[in-house]
Amino acid sequence: MDDAKPLSISRQSLQRMPIYLENLKKLRAAGKSHVSAAFLAGELGLHPVQVRKDLAAVSSVDGNPRIGFALAGLIEDMEDFLGCNNANEAVVVGVGNLGRALLSYKNFAGYGLSIIAGFDSDPAVAGTTVHGKEIFSASRITELCGRFGVHIGIITTPASSAQEVCDAMLLGGIKAIWNFAPLHLNIPDDIIITNENLAASFAALSGRLRQQRDAPKL
Ligand SMILES: NC(=O)c1ccc[n+]([C@@H]2O[C@H](COP(=O)([O-])OP(=O)(O)OC[C@H]3O[C@@H](n4cnc5c(N)ncnc54)[C@H](O)[C@@H]3O)[C@@H](O)[C@H]2O)c1
């Protein structure tokens, strides 16, 4: 669909989009042609109003009150929105446990991310390939990011190296950083950053578990 609406969307809504897309594709594979917001909400444990709002933010497909949204249009709009048909290219710096896992994960392509190469400071790692992607020496980050014309950099080095890696990426023209290192990075205001933190996610999980355990039994 050409006229998907460019509304401002919250981070939480953005994070739900790949989950909607996965579910919409499953329904299509099961032979369904339409889906209602109420059904999706039930499947994903969300409120139907929230689902309707999320879908309206990325799709111009109108839901029919009786049969719901046409799946084909919704999937097309969602894929356009997520950039699935025109994947963003990225590089990973730090090809250890986590960097290797990201380089090897096939499904990113379906969500608009194509990791094209890696960098590592370890001479035993630079010069190898992971999942068919070349791993270059970290000394070439600035040069090759510029030459590849990539705009997304993924940092999976130890925290002690993350700022220098980030600086080298920015000099090479990187505009958005997905940072897995547990460190606050100093970056200019116009650079987009997402910090991943498994410890924070786990704290939320264990906090909810504690609340459930401490709740009075009826
Ligand atoms: N945020 C999360 O949820 C999460 C989860 C797991 C790990 N981590 C973090 O991700 C990072 C990587 O973890 P890991 O388990 O893969 O570590 P690892 O030690 O297996 O890999 C780190 C890699 O970075 C390379 N490296 C070090 N300095 C470099 C530099 N200056 N330039 C290029 N490469 C460099 C090392 O040679 C190594 O290959 C760590 O900061 C860790 O704390 C974060």
Any overview of this molecule?
- The protein has 218 residues and is an alpha/beta fold.
- It has 2 domains: 11-82, Winged helix-like DNA-binding domain superfamily/Winged helix DNA-binding domain (Arc Repressor Mutant, subunit A, Orthogonal Bundle), CATH 1.10.10; 88-199, Rossmann fold (3-Layer(aba) Sandwich).
- It contains 8 helices and 9 strands.
- The protein has a 7-stranded mixed β-sheet.
- Helix 7 (159-171) links the parallel strand 7 and strand 8.
- Helix 1 packs across helix 4.
- The model is unreliable at 1-6 (pLDDT under 50).
List the helices and strands and how they pair.
Elements: H1 11-29, E1 34-35, H2 37-44, H3 48-58, E2 69-70, H4 71-82, E3 88-93, H5 97-104, E4 113-120, E5 129-130, E6 133-137, H6 141-148, E7 152-155, H7 159-171, E8 176-179, E9 192-195, H8 198-214
Parallel strand pairs: 3-4, 3-7, 4-6, 7-8, 8-9
Antiparallel strand pairs: 1-2, 5-6
Helix pairs in contact: 1-4, 2-3, 6-7
The chain binds nicotinamide-adenine-dinucleotide.
